[in-house]
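Q: What residues go here?
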């Protein structure tokens, strides 16, 4: 077992307690490698365990007691110290006061805001146990009584009619709140909508055209129910610092796909929703519909043979797909290819993958991989200076290094390289080029219409209202754009002395180079994409 999961990890705890088998662990690891999700999330997605099993294992991993609650375990003196509203807000129940300490059972032991609130209310330190949510609520019903009939969700907004607000606020499960927010995203064609815990409330922030604005506020009392509903919809595992998931929202007989990102904060979980258009990444460069010059530059970098090629995209998944696409164009016959990282580019199992164990420096893994004389070394993320320095040493040995950057265009990649150059981590002679990909949603041609352009914008603007042909989303698919910069002698010379990326890009544009930004503006003028999506996806 030591070779499959780390001692003391969630997988190890669940295996030793005979909750999961070795086959379950292997299936979860495969799911984790395929989707990039967390191990516990993979187990829940596969239906191997329930969320309760993960919570129990988490309590063991954190060395926090796990309790099965009964009324005899709850002391009314402890209950009297913690207000009902606070207990319900944070899904906890006081258990007992011993000496100068109060013991509680809580569904989320990592909720530091809840622990601080209990300590303040009780006036003493807090001892924590993990309890099942349903049992905590049963104890709340017994010792605090049922929630008052006047209790409401507490959502206020000028963007929704009074009838909608009434329906939302009288549903304490948060289901209607989530549904109406998703409908708001669809109808307003928002690029994103976020729930942000700030102090005494949850702020609803919507973004369109690269501009954010507040759309309402939610009381924190029932926010845990909202988060739980979203986690259930997107099958997000509990106890994770960050997670991503996907689900479908039904509207007018159609299922509209959404993605949600979760980030744990002190006052609660940050949630961001985005409507997504399902579009598979192209299987080859030829399928991307790129200009001939761009396709030729891609082929040139695929034939580099040695040195460093930077591959960039904002999203980790797209970056992985782009790396796989690059490998398809390379001549890998008879060559040793090693991939370092935990991601999972499409088709990545064709080549050996080296995951980085927790607590291990990626740079050390890179240097260890070089002992196996790889012809091509794939590094999924070299943002850390030590990792980038190790990548440069690999390139100096004659290995072709494909280095991953998180960036949205060639300018962003160039600027990161200039930063590494200024830190003396980079030898420009080994740079072969930059490949950056970005995706942007295309408007549905059946319901697309011109709209007034913003002030100081001469070019026309377009927007789609939604129709049966596009499932009421207003979108038809995704267009992929690329920035490709080949480092010839002149570009390398400019890079060595450049103050910023603009110095290099200015030279390239003088020689006919067009990047993602220029291609995006052309698509806006043609009505292929909206100005808002251009700004959010290609300039944001």
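A:
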């Amino acid at each position: 077992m030591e070779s499959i999961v780390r001692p003391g990890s969630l997988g190890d705890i669940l295996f030793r307690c005979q909750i999961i088998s070795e086959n379950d662990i292997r299936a979860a690891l495969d799911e984790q490698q395929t989707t990039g999700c967390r191990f516990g999330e993979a187990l829940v997605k596969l239906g191997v365990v329930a969320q309760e099993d993960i919570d129990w294992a988490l309590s063991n991993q954190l060395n926090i007691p796990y309790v099965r609650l009964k009324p005899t375990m709850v002391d009314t003196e402890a209950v009297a110290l913690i207000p009902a509203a606070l207990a319900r807000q944070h899904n906890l129940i006081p258990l007992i006061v011993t000496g100068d300490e109060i013991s509680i059972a809580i569904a989320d032991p990592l909720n530091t805001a809840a622990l601080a609130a209990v300590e303040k209310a009780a006036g003493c330190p807090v001892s924590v146990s993990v309890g099942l949510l349903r049992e905590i609520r049963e104890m709340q019903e017994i010792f605090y009584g049922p929630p008052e009939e006047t209790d409401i969700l507490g959502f206020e907004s000028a963007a929704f009619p009074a009838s909608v607000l009434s329906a939302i606020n009288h549903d304490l499960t948060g289901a209607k709140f989530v549904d109406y927010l998703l409908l708001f995203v669809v109808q307003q064609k928002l690029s994103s909508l976020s729930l942000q815990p700030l102090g005494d409330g949850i702020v609803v922030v919507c973004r369109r055209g690269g501009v954010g604005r507040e759309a309402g506020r939610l009381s924190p009392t029932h926010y845990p129910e909202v988060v739980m509903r979203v986690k259930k919809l997107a099958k997000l595992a509990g106890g994770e610092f960050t997670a991503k998931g996907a689900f479908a929202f039904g509207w007018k007989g159609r299922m509209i796909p959404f993605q949600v990102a979760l980030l744990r904060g002190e006052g609660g979980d940050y949630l961001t929703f985005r409507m997504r258009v399902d579009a598979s990444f192209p299987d080859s460069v030829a399928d991307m519909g790129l200009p001939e010059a761009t396709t030729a530059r891609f082929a040139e970098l695929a034939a580099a043979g040695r040195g460093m090629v930077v591959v960039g995209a904002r999203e980790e998944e797209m970056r992985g797909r782009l790396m796989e696409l690059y490998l398809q164009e390379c001549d890998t016959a008879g060559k040793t290819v090693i991939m370092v990282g935990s991601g999972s580019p499409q088709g990545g199992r064709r080549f050996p993958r080296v995951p980085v164990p927790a607590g291990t420096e990626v740079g050390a893994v890179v240097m260890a991989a070089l002992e196996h004389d790889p012809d091509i070394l794939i590094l999924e993320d070299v943002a850390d200076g030590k990792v980038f320095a190790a990548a440069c040493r690999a390139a100096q040995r004659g290995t072709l290094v494909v280095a991953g950057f998180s960036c949205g265009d060639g300018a962003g990649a160039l600027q990161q390289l200039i930063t590494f150059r200024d830190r003396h981590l980079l030898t420009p002679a080994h740079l072969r080029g930059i490949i950056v990909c970005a995706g942007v949603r295309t408007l549905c041609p059946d319901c697309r219409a011109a709209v007034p352009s913003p002030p100081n914008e001469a070019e026309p603007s377009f927007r789609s209202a939604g129709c049966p042909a596009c499932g009421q989303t207003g979108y038809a698919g995704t267009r992929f754009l690329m920035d490709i910069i080949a480092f010839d002698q002149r570009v390398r010379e400019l890079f060595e002395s450049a103050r910023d990326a603009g110095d290099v890009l200015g030279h390239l544009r003088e020689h006919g180079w067009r990047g993602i930004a220029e291609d995006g503006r052309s698509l806006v003028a043609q009505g292929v994409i909206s100005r808002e999506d251009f700004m959010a996806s290609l300039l944001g």
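A: Context that may help when evaluating the design: The two ends are 45 Å apart (CA to CA). The chain has a mean pLDDT of 83.
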